[in-house]
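Complex 808.
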Amino acid sequence: MDLTVTTAATLPDLEELRDRIAAAETVVPVGGRTHWDVGGPAPIGVEVRAPAGVVSYDPAELTVTAGAGTTVADLAATLEDGGQECVLDPRDPAAATVGGTLASGLSGYRRLRYGSLRDRLLEVRFVTGDGRVVKGGGPTVKNVTGYDLPRLLVGSLGTIGVIVQVTLRCQPRPRHVTWAGTSGDPFEVRRRCFRPSCIAWDGGDTRGLLEGDPDDVAAELHAGGLTPGDRGPAWPDGPHRGRISVRPGRLCALADELGGVDGLRWVAEIGVGTVHVGADRPAPLAQARQAAEAAGGWLLREQGDGIDGFGAGLPNRQLMARIKTAFDPAGKLSPGRLPV
Amino acid sequence: MADLRAALGPDRARAEPLELALYQRDAGVDRGQAAAVCFPGTVDQLAAAVGIAAWHDRPFVARGSGTGLAGGATPVGDPLVIVTTGLNRIVEVDADERVAWVEPGVLNLDLSRAVHHLGLHYAPDPSSQQACTIGGNVATNAGGPHCLAAGVTAAHVLAVEVVLADGSVAMLGGLEPDAPGYDLRGCFVGSEGTMGVSGRIAVRLTPNPPAVRTLLLDFSTIEAAAATVSGIIAAGIVPAALEMMDAEITRAVEDFVGAGYPRDAAAVLLVELDGLPAGVEAQVEAVRRVGHEHGARTVRVAADDAERALLWKGRKSAFGAIARIAPDYYLHDAVVPRTKLVDVLRQVYAIAAEYDLTMMNVFHAGDGNLHPLIVFDQRTPGVWERVHAAGDAILRACVDAGGVLSGEHGIGLEKRDAMPLVFTPDDLDAQARLRDAFDPSGRANPEKILPSGSRCGELQRVPAGAWI
Ligand SMILES: Cc1cc2nc3c(=O)[nH]c(=O)nc-3n(C[C@H](O)[C@H](O)[C@H](O)COP(=O)(O)OP(=O)(O)OC[C@H]3O[C@@H](n4cnc5c(N)ncnc54)[C@H](O)[C@@H]3O)c2cc1C
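Predicted structure with flavin-adenine dinucleotide bound:
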């Protein structure tokens, strides 16, 4: 089966983009603006966009190369033809770009099974503040040739370079996928199911996502005491949103605290330690942040301007500042996004 | 020395020539010379040793078991060698969170053994797992047969306590799913000791799969075996492991352990499928079908755990087996796109023939990770030159096919000067910036990974085709 795609065999000449970046005083890479409030305040400057389009895709390699400006939905459509997917799972795949999703570093809801977003990126090409194109990593599924620049770029929020092209790891689509629910103990579901893709819990309702062979899924449903349903969890929405990162073992105790915050909607990913929080006002988010920090975790702002991006200062700030300065000595890339 | 003896105790720091000779090299071929060697017994002593090196402005090299194959632990620049094997305690296991904190000198297999009774294991399983340390695995981002589906070391390391070159200690990453800011933990994994020395490490533990099936397929051509590899992936299956052995190594292994491998096969594939029972059985049938479609002569499915263990014993004894054929070997490590396997293998055999060398191939076929193995006797005059020239040609063939220089052994000294084959000066400059941000002093395992001239403004002098 040859499904090699070449919609943009070579990405449109990067020359112009490089010149714009090199000439600008402040550069702000823009994707689909779906993660625009993630982290520090949105910087103001010359907005630049990465090229869009799948560069090459061969299902036999289980990898795909695309312009960073490709939307996640467009990428998914290409991969679907090969019976594959790339687990990125942003909130709004139709608008979110691949580059923006990676730069924001937010792993999707299937992390319990498939691991972090960082594990997807094999090779990255980015433009530096002084207009050079740099490649990091390599196109093969396994690679330890040199330093891991791809991992540095994931979650760097546009402060290291403008991501222009990426090679991502793909996987076969599961044969059967179902959400299922229970009002029972979500931690017990985790203990009893071998490899659920997600266990989401809002303090009362537990929703599990099972993927795989239909017979295995049926057996897992039984083992976990789950009833198949057609809907996933109601991920918290609202003008003020964020995500908590906490040790998965502390979720139970943290849930008690979050339950007491008036006006806060939350859904926790059991076994992972991510808690998605949302509210109509900033105050509940600020309280959620306090609870998260008291539990040894932290809260990242994803939307709204009522609270700052990170709360308590970044760990290893000096080291991070050295990295930022090494890659962007002029300080022109997305200033303020990361408080380093 | 006096400072080291005072901080660590008199027995834990050595500089006798005989002792130092033991630390001239790792399991690769490059040699160096250490100024002193020390054996910290606690993480505090480890930090103290790095601090003393800083105070005396001396380079230092972390060393685990010395099983590395790229010269990563070879001492260059008269350094202090810091051996971590005394730091071998499993500090804490949390079965519910599926996390273990270990000291860097814990042996890979010891960890899996220690958590076996909890129904858990540590997924990355380098073939050297009986001997290599977790600290060494983190430093090389080690892979193994079961990393095809499970992912390599980087996907299993949650947090690393790192002693930076100035002797200060930083915790990179954490047990929380995300750490704010840059992924420092991700940058450190695979940095081969050039960003600092790891102290305690938090790793993810993986539940043992409910069902496991192991298959042995044998073929009369290597092309058919390679086509089967692609066929399995194309059928939507990512096996837990997918290993290939060619005719020479299959015979050698069979003579050595008698695992029941067919002696007349041109190639065998060892395929392991794991997960939940129904999916595993469906995949067994699919692999069987794909194998037959591509001309597999036999497809043997291990009937029980004993037979499974025997099939794996064959694969894992490859290195023992070759020791009986010739005293020396040079094991290569490169990755090519899966679809180029057949092409590149053909070239690799042609290169061996051209240089009149005995070559065997046993490798992680599922992810295109080739391990051409040249066996020789170094007493043969002129053989080293041929081995090196062949190695260089193999690497070039892999890179020309769109591959990379290393899939799991790392760059170290061995492949340092080949880096410009896959990276531009700007790429190397970016890598140097990252390294220097972690270690501005340049004393952490100097001269490794990046060729001189990687930093912009440095003189570019990369000897053509040089192998150190
Ligand atoms: C027979 C054989 C089979 C092998 N099979 C595989 C395989 O399947 N997959 C694979 O990936 N590798 C394999 N290897 C290579 C080797 O075992 C791995 O690279 C292993 O991770 C090295 O671990 P070590 O403890 O021996 O490290 P060492 O060889 O002592 O050191 C390796 C590198 O890590 C650095 N280092 C060690 N400890 C630390 C620390 N605490 N902090 C910072 N840096 C440190 C060293 O400076 C050096 O650069 C094999 C080797 C042999 C001999």
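The two ends of chain B are 30 Å apart (CA to CA).
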